[in-house]
Amino acid sequence: MQTKPVTVIGSYNVGLFLKGATLPTPGQTVIGDQFYEGGGGKGSNQAVAASKFGAKTRFIGRVGFDKYGEDAIAMYRRLGINTETVTVDTSIHTGISVILIDRFGQNLISVIPGANFNLSCQDIDAALQAIADSCIVAFQLENRLEVTDYAIRRVHDLGIPTFLDPAPAVPLPDDLYPYIDIIKPNETEATILTGIPVTGVGTADEAGHWLVERGVGTAIVTLGEHGASLVTKDATRHFFPPRVKAIDSTGAGDIFAGALMTALAQGRSMEDSIVFASHAAAISTTRLGVIEAIPSADEVMTSLATL
Asked: Is 234 among the catalytic positions?
């Protein structure tokens, strides 16, 4: 049974979704037919997923002094996520994404990081005492890279396993890789990181080996409906997800990450944790949304029982 928390250092963005028949061209105004908003950001999504799967969870990040920041903290508290290390930044707004979607599902997206880009190395130092009891600490690349780089090194030096979901992907400093215990790129991100065009299992394995050769402990290259490749110094293995009728894959990678960390925190092996995460992510693609699509742990266990 888990006794130490999963800690996620990352971003919170509120998404404002506007749906209509067509997307506007420059200078054009169009009338839409549907609007909704929802909490997001890769770090926040992963923390929410971990909490929903049963992990004791802490989130470290910044939100603005506004309605969206209040909504974020209220959501975390409702889900039992520790918010002591969430800073309310009075100098700037909460991170925001505006997504315009047409009848074919095509979209235009504009993201303003807001408070996420104010997360600082000083914030990391101030949270180190809280971080010290973690079983794993997760990172993404939606905050400033120099801050994430600093945080990964500090956490690794504490002897706590580090997990990086490298999205949105950018080339990383070569000397950072030895500080990353687990990395989980998808095929596009693995291509950007390694320069190896990842198009299937074989090239995913190749990219995984590239990452491990540079010092990463474990590489998990995800391939959507085609599963995930696990690469370590000692072994390479591919995992196939359950077959489902997917209707929305948005956020499946974050749900995979939250499920993986929860399973590891509960003492499962890496292999069993990847299987658990694969089923969790697959189930989520059969539903619309991200947070709303996260299955319960019982649903995932039921899916696993069909193996």
From this structure: no
Q: Looking at the domain 42-90+117-160+241-304, which fold is it?
A: UDP-N-acetylmuramoyl-L-alanine:D-glutamate ligase (3.40.1190)
Neighbouring residues of 27: CB distance < 8 A, sequence distance ≥ 6: none
Of the residues 66, 89, 123, 254, only one is catalytic, namely: 254
From the list 68, 41, 94, 95, the residue with the least C-alpha distance to 258 is 41
The answer to whether 120 and 147 are in contact (CB under 8 A) is yes
- Render pLDDT for 20-44 as a digit per residue (tens, 0 to 9): 999 999 999 999 999 988 889 999 9
Q: Over the chain, what is the mean pLDDT?
A: 94
Q: How many CB atoms lie within 10 A of CB 185?
A: 26
Q: How far is 67 from 238, CA to CA, in rounded Å? A: 44
| Residue position matching structure tokens 């997800």 | 241
Amino acid present at 76: Y
Q: What pLDDT digit, counting tens, does each position of 43-66 carry?
A: 999 999 999 999 999 999 999 999
Are residues 79 and 52 in contact, defined by beta-carbon separation less than 8 angstroms? yes
The Cβ of residue 90 has, within 10 Å, a number of other Cβ atoms equal to 10
Q: Model-level pTM greater than 0.90?
A: yes
CA distances from 183 to 65, 122, 123, 162 (A): 33, 25, 23, 8
Q: What's the CA gap between 130 and 301, in Å, rounded?
A: 31
Q: What angle do CA 41, 46, 47 make, to 5 degrees?
A: 100
